[in-house]
Amino acid sequence: MSRKRAAWLWPPLGLVLLAVSALMGVAAGAASISPLDIAGALLGRLPFTSVDSPLSGLQEAVLVELRLPRVVVGALVGGLLASAGAAYQGVFRNPLADPFLLGAAGGAGLGATLVLAFGPQLLDSPRALVPVAAFAGALAGVAAAYALGTIAGGSGTTTLVLAGVAVSSFLSAGQNLVQMIRVEDLRLIYAWMMGGLGRGGWDDVAMIAPYAAVSVLVLLGCGYLLDLLALGDEKALSLGLNATGARILVIAAASLATAAAVSVSGLIGFVGIVVPHIVRRLVGTGYRMILPMSLLTGAAFLILVDIAARTLIAPAELPLGVVTAFLGAPFFVFILRTTRNRAG
Prior knowledge:
Number of strands: 0
Keywords: Cell membrane, Membrane, Transmembrane, Transmembrane helix, Transport
CATH topology: ABC transporter involved in vitamin B12 uptake, BtuC
Pfam family, one: FecCD
Organism: Streptomonospora halophila
Transmembrane segments: 68-88, 100-122, 128-148, 208-229, 260-279, 291-312, 318-336
Order of helices and strands: HHHHHHHHHHHHHHH
Structural class: mainly alpha
Distance between the termini: 36 Å
Subcellular location: Cell membrane
């Protein structure tokens, strides 16, 4: 079997990985529920089926109202962050580009924090505006990092990373200022900034579903554009691609994906850099395959990390951002060393 034909086996494998991870996610917890009982309960909820749920009323409530929405939110957040990271890496042609390193997550976090802190004083239902404010902040963060990197001497790997770190630090200072002003909301804002899925419910799924759908559809449709951009602007132009317009489209979609994820999960780092690099080593360098596989693998990855976060020190729960930082920081150092060795 040729490599090209074999590559298309990866999406079905990604779907299997996601399904297994989701089943593990809804099964894990203090109340033990077997995978077979979970499957039977979910099957009984499908229309036109007469299967009786094997779960008690309490078990079914735990499954449907607590565990299932948490897994769905985790899958959405992981898939959005991973696909956004892959898109940023492709559009900037930079292996270290990531929603957090480029300031997108920091900008989204600041926008969401402003709504959480001041929204209740101004609006009756401020939570619906969190994704919108996060999107505006994400776009501003990426634009500032790229502009600063360009002014400082180009868009090379080191320059762009340093610019992103500077912008992220500035945005983090803005968040700290908001916390000082709104001391009464400090606990809520701080818990949100640490990142986690414990608050995830069906209302969160409904809130970000439209933004997630739009961003994912656009990003998956941009795989061919990113493959052309990888050839260089002159080559892409000779093939009829407007490089500037393509970059704006990809950056906007990736920033919307980041904003949707951050608005419900808080700040969860390194997903957008770890997952795309793992996927790239498996499926190759074509973004028409990297993007959908990053979406599926990122969803499964964050579900599994969330299982670890809520079981390692049970009954207490680790902040999800802390767990991803422990996993991602060494991986980032490895990627940085590999990139520098190649450049040298």
